[in-house]
Amino acid sequence: MSLTLVSFNICPYVLRVVAALNHLKIPYEIKYIDLENKPDWFVKASPLEKVPILFVGETVLFESLVILDYVNTLAPQSLLPNDNLQKALNRARAEFSGEIIGTFWSVFSAKTEESFKNSLADLKWYFEKLEGWLQQSKFIYSNELTLADFAYAPIFTLFDALKPLLKFNLYEGFPRLQEYSQSILSLPGVQSSKVENYDQLIQERIKKGDPFFLTQ
């Protein structure tokens, strides 16, 4: 059955699905749309009018972590543990990544010093949780790569794209998190998940908002 993933070029939630598809070597097509001018077929297909959506033949899946779960079932070897409780724990840790993605945009779109510092403090709070988990295992759930790790791929890809603009180290005080980020970024599936000129596109989008951190 054919798979068609619908995206816009810098969507972090799409990137996690693309990284997993690439890693698992599952054939798919990708179709990019302009979210400022959504085509009618997309509005009809996507209940929330958001990307990603995945066409599985004529059936439409939405929500990136749900799509990840489905994609995993197509692989010869699952990236999830066998035990149902452990599967749920793996999914819970994947869900945690969504909070960080939201906080990322708060940090790097903040227009005042106060809102920037508050958002950065929130981000560091999440980092402390991750650092604690990573003190116990190589990856976010265990010593083996699992599906949850792909949920974090866009976070590190975004941070990496912004590095040339930053005058501070986001990972200062979080050595295991920094190691983990490099492990995820080094995965071939993650490296090939970005569109051409991804870093430049991210930087241009951030700069357009005239955020406070660029005044530092």
From TrEMBL:
Annotated ranges, domain GST N-terminal: 1-79
Any single GO CC term annotated in Swiss-Prot or TrEMBL for this entry: cytoplasm
Limits of the GST C-terminal domain: 83-212
InterPro entries: Glutathione-S-Trfase_C-like, Glutathione_S-Trfase, Glutathione_S-Trfase_N, GST_C, GST_Omega/HSP26
Protein name: Glutathione S-transferase
Organism: Paramecium primaurelia
Native organism taxonomy: Eukaryota, Sar, Alveolata, Ciliophora, Intramacronucleata
